[in-house]
């Protein structure tokens, strides 16, 4: 494994992919815990489809993909959260509307312009070759910014995650921090799409959190475990993708599935052990 990583690091594009991937994995794992606990996990799926439509439009007009996709996804995050909270359309229905509508717009745009080519597969399923040096630099800056904002608002996000009603009663504007969470998620989704693809990026947010919750019960311990699981699964997935020439996103998700199963078994065994001790 060490020799494999040494070989991977000998290629500049792999170094870019690994650095950006680790940063995006950290962002996804930090945000994923709150999103899962607040039952906002599908917002990542909705925003990923918006991101696909944005990338398709950017490609059609030869514009910088990330510079087009990020503001559009941030606006979509505002609208999606607003629709979910203040409209007669329920959250899951709103997400479904956004998913199907954005995917249709993206496919129509590509069909009428560049056609269904290799770039489309990269957007849908991810590719480390799709990450240019300019995209990598922007991704690093924005990923670090997401981590800093999350750390700064950690206490508020924690409060909003577990008891939003009480948080509002104390005078805290919970809506603002829900929006902060949605905006950070939108940025993370767009950054991760180039490697994970529009169809798989939401799994990078959901899997590490759910995996960690199998064995950890406290918020902080779940976050720390989620960060470790996310990074390890990303690195193993990248190694698998490099060695077997499999799609990057699918490889990472496959490793996450294995980790989820292993942690689930550990959680069951741990639970039975504690039950025996109580007896």
Could you characterize what this model shows?
With 279 residues, the protein is an all-alpha fold. The chain contains 13 helices and no strands. The longest helix is centred in the last third of the chain and has 31 residues. The N and C termini lie far apart (44 Å).
Class from helix and strand fractions: mainly alpha
Order of helices and strands: HHHHHHHHHHHHH
Number of distinct helices: 13
Sheet bearing the most strands, described?
none
Strand content: under 5%
Name the helicity range: over 70%
Low-pLDDT runs of 5+ residues are none
Number of strands: 0
Radius of gyration: 19 Å
Question: How would you summarize the topology of this molecule?
Answer:
Blueprint: H1 2-8, H2 12-37, H3 43-60, H4 65-86, H5 91-112, H6 118-125, H7 133-152, H8 154-162, H9 164-169, H10 174-196, H11 201-213, H12 219-244, H13 248-278
Helix pairs in contact: 2-7, 2-10, 2-11, 2-12, 3-4, 3-5, 3-10, 3-11, 4-5, 4-10, 6-10, 7-10, 11-12, 11-13, 12-13
């Amino acid at each position: 494994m060490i020799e494999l990583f040494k070989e991977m690091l000998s290629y500049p594009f792999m170094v870019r992919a690994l650095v950006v991937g680790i940063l995006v994995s950290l962002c996804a794992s930090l945000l994923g815990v709150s999103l899962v606990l607040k039952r906002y996990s599908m917002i990542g799926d909705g925003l990923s489809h918006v991101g696909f439509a944005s990338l398709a439009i950017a490609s059609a007009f030869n514009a910088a993909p990330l510079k087009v996709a990020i503001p559009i996804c941030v606006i979509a995050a505002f609208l999606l959260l607003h629709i979910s909270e203040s409209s007669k359309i329920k959250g899951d229905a709103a997400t479904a509307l956004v998913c199907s509508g954005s995917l249709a717009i993206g496919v129509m745009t590509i069909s009428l312009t560049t056609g269904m080519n290799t770039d489309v597969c990269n957007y849908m399923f991810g590719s480390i070759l799709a990450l240019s040096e300019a995209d990598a630099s922007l991704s690093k800056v924005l990923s670090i910014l997401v981590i800093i904002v999350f750390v700064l608002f950690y206490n508020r996000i924690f409060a909003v995650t577990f008891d939003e009603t009480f948080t509002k009663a104390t005078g805290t504007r919970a809506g603002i921090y829900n929006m902060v969470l949605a905006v950070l998620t939108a940025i993370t989704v767009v950054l991760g799409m180039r490697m994970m693809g529009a169809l798989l990026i939401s799994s990078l947010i959901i899997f590490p959190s759910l995996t960690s919750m199998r064995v950890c019960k406290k918020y902080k311990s779940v976050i720390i475990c989620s960060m470790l699981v996310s990074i390890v699964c990303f690195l193993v997935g990248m190694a698998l993708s490099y060695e077997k020439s499999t799609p990057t996103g699918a490889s990472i998700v496959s490793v996450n599935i294995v980790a989820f199963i292993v942690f689930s078994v550990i959680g069951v065994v741990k639970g039975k052990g504690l039950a025996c001790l109580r007896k």
